[in-house]
Amino acid sequence: MSTAHYLWIKKKEAVYLDVTKAWSKGVAIFFATGAVSGTVLSFELGLLWPRFMEHAGPIFGMPFSLEGTAFFIEAIALGFYLYGWNRFHPWFHWLTGVVVGITGLLSGILVVAANSWMNSPSGFDFVNGQYLNIDPMKAMFNAAWFSQALHMCVAAFVSTGFAVAGVHALMILKGKNVNFHSKAFRIAAIFATVAACLQPLSGDISAKDVAKRQPAKLAAMEAHFHTEKGAPLIVGGIPDTATQTVNYALKIPKLLSFMATNDFNAEVKGLDSFPKIDHPPILVTHFAFQIMVGLGMAMLGLALLYFIALFKKKSWSESRWLLKLFVIATPLGYLALEAGWTVTEVGRQPWIIYGVMRTADAVTPMPGIAYSFYLFTAVYISLAVIVSFLLFRQIKMVNTLYDSSTDHKTR
């Protein structure tokens, strides 16, 4: 949105103003939904996980408090942005949109900092079941926060970029308001493809961090049953927990050892190094990891094709086959994102605070709590349906309001 706005100020081409205003409505829809879903999440934590919040709240409460501050700044900036047209200086108005983006990104980083603390608990001493000497700053900037926040932020640009680019690519293929959708597609596609190229690098940083702090999670991700030196990287395959083998997999010799430690002959711990009671769900973790990596590689491949189209094969940039690939890629970023969060959360099990508190000890111990879970699930499903409807309606309105054949001054 801010990029389109910047291009409008610099070039004074009406189509960029149209794109900016269209995307600003999408931002407003997601902001309103985020306010509702975030409020529900607060109640969910208290009702479903009271024992967890009783102990963890005073330790990792700071990033949540700061996230609330970032959210309010975002709300104020968004209000200025949505209602500031023709009221503020153009560059100040543009700046309020940039603040919306920065504070939204900061909110995500702070929430991920809280989650990373669950994977890498720090900032306290655990003595005889008591949490003592609490240091909220150390808890917030724990060993995992940078790698997780980096990976998640890049994933957000990948998933959103490909989703937006895919919608505009579909409209171009249908021949609807081609000039408008072509400009929007190019902006979204550049964000998506650059992020897709950066994501494997952030993934490597994250994987090395997991190998160091949560070797059982890494073993489940890779279906690595036996501790060995020069461990192979397993691509695909179906783990058999009974025989502790992986069927139908492609094994690349010594690559897992190198990716985990930068040493081809280093030892990588397998699941046999940990008590069975501490094993994560192997099938779910492995399949989710394979889905995340596979989709990430597919989007990386599409990104490379797009760069070739931009710099080498200009004729490709307007080809229908390339646009069709972007349409196919529309949901891939979000599917990869969800698969990644499955790896993070399921792979941490059976711990809710890694090595400190088990998930079974954190949940509400009262009967009938399942109904609260069903209620929260219904709320989020309802929000998903509402957002989908609003976005679908917005896309239809875009083709009506911002028709390239209409004189911009009359709109």
TrEMBL record:
Keyword Iron applies: yes
Subcellular compartments: Cell membrane
GO molecular function: electron transfer activity; heme binding; metal ion binding; oxidoreductase activity, acting on diphenols and related substances as donors, oxygen as acceptor
Keywords, ordered alphabetically: Cell membrane, Electron transport, Heme, Iron, Membrane, Metal-binding, Transmembrane, Transmembrane helix, Transport
Alphabetized Pfam families for the sequence: Cyt_bd_oxida_I (PF01654)
GO biological process: aerobic electron transport chain
InterPro entries from the UniProt entry: Cyt-d_ubiquinol_oxidase_su_1
Membrane association type: Multi-pass membrane protein
The protein's name: Cytochrome bd-I ubiquinol oxidase subunit 1 apoprotein
Organism of derivation: Pedobacter hartonius
